[in-house]
């Protein structure tokens, strides 16, 4: 059976923040890397996505979700994949209090 404990519960309230995201009417390509995107083009797209996130009223909700769900792709809550992966790795190495 798949391990699902790290996924958010399917409760409407836990997803409500998405209705207020600054990206809600934007194309997903602004936040997710198209296939074969590399180098400067990729970095610039990610920076543009992060700029949208910086003005987003639900940035912290979005970031919390993405870290908890360990989203593998895209910019969420102002963090790209590499930034989230480093935070997740640090969290795993930190003993629970
Ligand atoms: S923080 Fe960024 S990715 Fe998350 S809802 Fe806001 S604009 Fe969208």
Automatic annotation (TrEMBL):
MF-aspect GO terms: 4 iron, 4 sulfur cluster binding; dinitrosyl-iron complex binding; DNA binding; metal ion binding; protein-disulfide reductase [NAD(P)H] activity
InterPro entries linked to this entry: 4FE4S_WBL, Whib
Required cofactor names: [4Fe-4S] cluster
Record note on cofactor: Binds 1 [4Fe-4S] cluster per subunit. Following nitrosylation of the [4Fe-4S] cluster binds 1 [4Fe-8(NO)] cluster per subunit.
Chief site of localization: cytoplasm
Domain of life according to the entry: Bacteria
Record domain 4Fe-4S Wbl-type: where: 22-86
Keyword hit for Disulfide bond: yes
Protein modification: The Fe-S cluster can be nitrosylated by nitric oxide (NO).
Keyword Iron: yes
Positions with a binding annotation for [4Fe-4S] cluster: 23, 53, 56, 62
Pfam families for the chain: Whib (PF02467)
Subcellular location: Cytoplasm
Coiled-coil segments on the chain, per record: none
Protein purpose: Acts as a transcriptional regulator. Probably redox-responsive. The apo- but not holo-form probably binds DNA.
The protein's name in its UniProt record: Transcriptional regulator WhiB
Organism of origin: Haloechinothrix aidingensis
